[in-house]
Structures are given as structure tokens and as C-alpha cells.
Amino acid sequence: MNYSTLKKGVVASLVVLMGATSLVSAQDAPASSSSAKVFGGRAQYRTWSLGVNAGVTTPIVLLGGRNDFTNWDVNLGYGVSIRKQLGHAFGLEGNIMRGKLSGSNKDATGGVLNGVREFETKLGYSADIRGVVNVATVDFLRRENAVNFILHAGYGLVGYQPDVTAANGTVTQQRPASGDKYYHGAYIPVGAGVKFKVSDNVSFNLNYTMNFLDDYNLNGVTTGNPPNFDKWSYLAAGLEFSLGSKAKPNLDWVNPLALMYDELKDPSLRQEVEALKNRVSNVEKSIEDLKKDSDGDGVADQFDKCAGTPAGTKVDGSGCPLPTPPAPVVAEATAPMASGWETIQFEFNSSVLKTEAYPVLDKLSSTLRENGGKITAKGYASSEGTAAYNMKLSKDRANSVKTYLVNSGVNANQVTAKGFGEANPIASNDTEEGRIQNRRVESSRN
To answer: What does the pLDDT look like over 360-404, one tens digit per residue?
Structure first.
């Protein structure tokens, strides 16, 4: 390994890049992330960046594996990148790189292995797209990060020209039989890196990438059974520049935990929460006012047309006292037996059968059980309330009659229950006497 070349290349790269970062940092003021909002989307950040890099290439990788040469050299490589940050922790990056790879068999017996003394391969291009994961974006200890750690992997294509020197010193320039300038192959780049924040717009990056080629002749040697898949490494330092409006923060360096904390502590948000609480309180008070019943007659004040009704007074739907029904006239003669077809009366807003309806329904039940046949129980209501509510109330009254008859032994299919609401009044709905008569169920044969 040529350590002198390695040290010179790395030192020169660091000196040049650090000098450039100092100049940029002196002129750049970091953008504030205070305008960014949680769930505000990528449009509130700068998400595009452009990078330049330079470093060293080697025909080996840290993971080891079989190599076709006993010795490897360090050579210069350089490239550019463009990245789109899709979220706080993930982005897509395109990379283009050029350089050279070389190695020899000088530690082999006689300096030759498999008839080959050394190789040199020109990397005409290597281009790939890779996913980049920022593993240090969410930081529970620091509000702002100055160092981010990166993992990346992807897929790419490389064009290369291997030159091989045989044992006798003959140099063979291996080229595709098709006449193309380069051999072309696919490769998988996998690596890691560290990013140092110089300013909100500039970062200094160190990256190590292992490139696994889906081909055998990157170094011009295809011996072995099976042949050895080739690989190479690229250790690089570089600068990355954030693109876009400097008024927007760079998504690379925004800690979403700090952003969420700041938004929760935002005074304007607290004011909105307090205003919302006040609106809820006002709504609750309005509901309580709607339910208020000052005289306790069961009718809310806003619907009570007769306020101040004495306690215990029976009232109608508008809160007004019901007229006292006339005292029943006691007939000296014995009351006639029920025929079963009499009208069944109901209380206001009720579908509960009165006790005086039982003898009528018992007689009707006996008739249906003994003689068979079918009837229809027709329910009606007075005009208080809405038409829809009165329709439902009339159906409930008819079903009360049907339920009584079925419970007394009548077959359910002998009785049909229908509601007619306010239709077919038998008395005027303008008086309470008339409304009492209209709250009824009539039974008729089918």
C-alpha cells in the first residue's frame, strides 16, 4: 500500500476544504427555524443540496473478501452529488465520481500471480442513486445538532478501462469487443459518513463508500472458479451547499423534537386554546339556558307560554294549565257492556294505555280469538308538536293496542297497527276538549 500517497491526498483535501468552509462561514448567517411548523410540509424548508468531494480510491473494501492481487494502491478520486431531502431523516442522492484503481502482486513469489504483475483501471464514470438516512436528526439531548451521522445505500452503473501488465512486462489494454470505450457494469454502493455543520447553508462531509460490482474484470483478471466479483472503496471529504432561499431553514439540521416543543410553547397557540375554552364554556352556558325550567312544570322557559305555573299543575306542551275535565256523571242504570269496538283514548304526549281501556280491549280480544278475522288499529294524535313527532306518537299508540291484544292471546297476524298522525280529527284541535278526543286509537275490521 502506498501510504505516502494516502497521507498526501487526505491532508491536501482537508486543508483545501476546511479553508473553503471558513470563507463561506464568515459570509453566511444561519437561517432561523422559528418560522417552521410541525406538519407544515417540505415547502417551509430548503431541501435541495449540491456537493463536491475528493478523496482516495482503493480496490478493496473494509469487509474483506477475496482479492486478485496481493497489494493495493491508493489513488485520487473526485465527484459531485445532488440530494433531495424528503424528510427529517431520509433523502435521495445522486452521485457521479471519477478516479483510478491500481494494484500489484509484488508480495507474491517473483512478483507475479496468475501470470499478472500489476493492473491499473481508469474509472471513466460511476453514477448511482442512493437512499440517505440521517441517523442523528432526532436528538433528545441537544436542541440543535452540529454533527449528523449518515448511512446510505443504492444502485449505480460504472464505466471502466483496465490495463494489465503481464509477467514479461507487456501491457494489455483490455477493451470491450463491441468497440465501446468502456466496460459497463452495475454496482451496489453501501457506506456511512459524518456531516459537520459549518453554517445553516454549508456542511463539511466525510464519507466512506464500499462499491460492489456485478462483474469480474474491474482489475482485468477473471481467473478463479468461480471468478471473483470485484469491488472498490472511496473515502472522500467534501463540501455540501444547501440550495434555495436563505430565509428558510435547512431541513438537514432541524430537530423535529425541538420544533414540536417550540410550537407547543408558542404563546399564540396558548391564546387560541384559551379562546377555544371560552367558546366551549359559552356553548355549555347556552345549553343550560335552553334547558332552564323556572316554574318546574316540565316545559323549558323558551317554550313556556304560561310562566309561573303553580307547582303540581298539569300543563300542555306550551306550559299552559290543562282545563279541568268535567266530573263524570254517575248513571243510575248499570253501564252497558263493552262491545270491543269503542275508541281508545290517550293522555297528552303518551302512548300508555289507560286502565279504562282494558275492558274494551279484553272484549275485542275475546271476539278475535273466538271468531277469527283481522282488524286494523288506527292511531291518531292532536295537533300539538310537529307533524313528524305526532306521526310517530300515533304509531306508538296503535302498537300499544296491538301489543295488548297479542299478549292476551290474539295471533299477531290478526292485528295491523297504523299511525295517521294529526289526520282525520274527530273534534276541533283549537280547544283542549277537542284535542283530548283526537288522542285516540280506533279499531276496524279488515
So the answer is: 999 999 999 999 999 999 999 999 889 999 999 999 999 999 999
pLDDT digits (tens, 9 = 90+) for 26-83: 334 444 555 666 666 778 889 999 999 999 999 999 998 888 899 999 999 999 999 9
C-alpha gyration radius of the chain: 47
Do 52 and 166 sit in the same domain of this protein?
Answer: yes
**Are 150 and 233 part of one and the same domain?**
yes
How far is 218 from 159, CA to CA, in rounded Å? 9
Which residue, 382, 440, 375, 371, is CA-closest to 413? 375
Any bridge partners for residue 85, and if so which? 91
318 and 348 belong to one structural domain: no
Strand partners, 404: none
Q: What string of DSSP letters covers 209-248? A: EEEEESSS-TTS---TTTTPPPEEEEEEEEEEEEES-TTS
Residue in the block written with cell 300508555: 352
Question: Residue 196 CA to chain centroid, in angstroms?
Answer: 32
Task: Count how many domains the chain has.
Answer: 3
Q: Is residue 272 part of a domain?
A: no
Q: Grid coordinates in use for 371?
A: 271468531
Predicted pLDDT at 351: 92
Burial class of 285 by CB neighbour count within 10 A (0 to 12, 13 to 18, 19+): exposed
Residues 155 and 16 in one domain: yes
CATH number at residue 56: 2.40.160.20
- Please tell me whether residues 350 and 312 are part of one structural domain: no
3-state secondary structure of 68: coil
Measured in degrees and rounded to the nearest 5, phi and psi for residue 27 equal -100, -10
Residue 297 structural domain: 290-322
pTM of the model: 0.54
**Are 260 and 296 within one domain?**
no
The identity of residue 412, as a single letter, is: A
CA dist 351 and 349 (Å) reads 7
Residues 6+ away with beta carbon under 8 Å from 379: 393, 394, 395, 396, 397, 398, 399, 401, 417, 418, 419, 420, 440, 441
Residues of the chain with pLDDT under 70: 1-40, 138-143, 224-225, 259-260, 262-271, 324-336
Task: Specify whether the CB–CB gap between 202 and 28 falls below 8 A.
Answer: yes
Cβ-Cβ contacts under 8 Å for 118 (sequence gap 6 or more): 69, 102, 103, 104, 105, 106, 164, 165
Residue 258 and residue 131 share a domain: yes
Residue at 274 is within a domain: no
Task: State whether 60 and 185 are in the same domain.
Answer: yes
